Amino acid sequence: MREPLFVKQNTAKWRDFEQSPTDDPDEQADRFIQITDDLAYAKTFYPKSKTTAYLNGLAAGLHQAIYKNKSEKSNRFLTFWKYELPLLFKKHQKQLLYSFLFFIVFCLIGVVSAKYDESFVRLIMGDQYIDMTNANIAKGDPFGVYKSGNELEMFFGIATNNIYVSLVTFVSGIIFSVGTVFFLFRNGIMLGSFQYYFFSKGLGAQSILVIWIHGTLEISSIIIAGAAGLILGNSFLFPKTFKRFESLKSGAKDAMKIAIGIIPILIVAAFFEGFVTRHTEMPLWLSISILSISLAFIVWYVIIYPNKIYKTKP
Question: What pLDDT, on a 0 to 100 scale, did the predictor assign at position 36?
Answer without folding.
Answer: 84
